[in-house]
Amino acid sequence: MMSANSSIEPNDRITKESGEVVVRVVNLKKSFGNMPVLKGISLTLHKGENLAILGRSGSGKSVLIKCMVGLMAVDEGEIEILGHNVRSLSPGELNKMRQQVGFSFQSSALYDSMTVQENLEFPLKRNLNLFDKTELNNLVKMALHDVGLEETSKKKPAELSGGMKKRIGIARTLILKPKIMLYDEPTAGLDPITSTEINELILNVRKKYNTSSIIITHDISCASQTADRVIALIDGQSKVEGTFEELKATKDKELAPFFKY
Predict the structure, then answer these.
(1) Could you tell me where the DSSP H helices lie in 147-261?
(2) pLDDT at residue 139 above 70?
(3) What is the distance between the alpha carbons of residues 89 and 247, in angstroms, rounded to a whole number?
(4) Which CA distances in Å does 176 have to 35, 127, 146, 230?
(5) Where along the chain do its domains lie?
(6) Which backbone phi and psi does 133 adopt, to 5 degrees?
(7) Euclidean distance between CA atoms 260 and 220, whole angstroms
(8) Are 77 and 28 in contact (CB under 8 A)?
(9) Residue from 205, 196, 244, 198 nearest 11 by CA
(10) pLDDT value at residue 4
(11) What are phi and psi of 26, to 5 degrees?
């Protein structure tokens, strides 16, 4: 039985298939003024693994992944992604590393003035200097196909439902073929049926693109359906770690509220 601050080794399937560590975070700390948000987070992500970071709203989950990719400066700790020490990278090296890490924002972060086609072309033009119309069209078509929204290319974000915006946001991230995906609250604000579709998409993305993923969520169903392993983020610390069923079985009082559904 687990207790706070306990740690369970990754399950055998993940260990055997993907012993390589692609993300390592050690004792990460971040405060805003006199308010500590992250109080010593440690985690590892293995190649091919889906890791869910489960925590309540305001627990620092989104701050964690922004720190991981250098969008926020950290106070203390080590961050290693794909063998790179993130805190020691120059701005140019950091941008190059970020091209291998897909960031799916909670808000989808689509440009309202652009069509779906233009939104998906944007990272190709900005990051890869790709301007050939035929190649752009083929890559956009493939990305939209992979999220099941081929018919939306000429639409504006305002014409899309919340679930469709999430899918387009994921497609725009996938179009650069990242090695790691970071999902920030992928099911937030969605109905249960649409949430299940997004969860299935996350699993399909791993299968087709061979990604390793960190899924930030407060949605217990999302963690259950998508994750090989779950870390509970409580009071700014990565306190309990294991498979979803292991966390569900524990009688730790701090975890109990997550499983009342």
Answers:
(1) 162-174, 192-209, 220-226, 244-249
(2) yes
(3) 36
(4) 36, 9, 13, 27
(5) 1-100+180-261, 110-177
(6) -60, -40
(7) 9
(8) yes
(9) 244
(10) 38
(11) -130, 115
* Mean local confidence (pLDDT), 240-258: 81
**Could you tell me the CA-to-CA distances from 90 to 3, 93, 94, 102, 176 in Å, in that order?**
40, 5, 6, 19, 21
pLDDT band at 261 (very low <50, low <70, confident <90, very high): low
* pLDDT for 260: 66
How, if at all, do strands 21-32 and 35-46 pair?
antiparallel
> Is the alpha carbon torsion for 96, 101, 104, 106 positive or negative?
negative
11 phi and psi, to 5 degrees?
-65, 165
In sequence order, the β-bridge partners of residue 32 are 35
For residue 25, give the 3-state DSSP assignment.
strand
Largest CA distance in the chain: 57
Neighbouring residues of 158: CB distance < 8 A, sequence distance ≥ 6: 112
Fold of 1-100+180-261: Rossmann fold (3.40.50)
Averaged pLDDT for residues 59-64: 86
256: exposed, middle or buried (Cβ count in 10 Å: 0-12, 13-18, 19+)? exposed
For residues 52 and 220, the answer to whether their CB atoms sit within 8 Å is no
Alpha-helix residue ranges (DSSP H) falling in the chain: 12-17, 61-68, 91-98, 116-128, 133-146, 162-174, 192-209, 220-226, 244-249
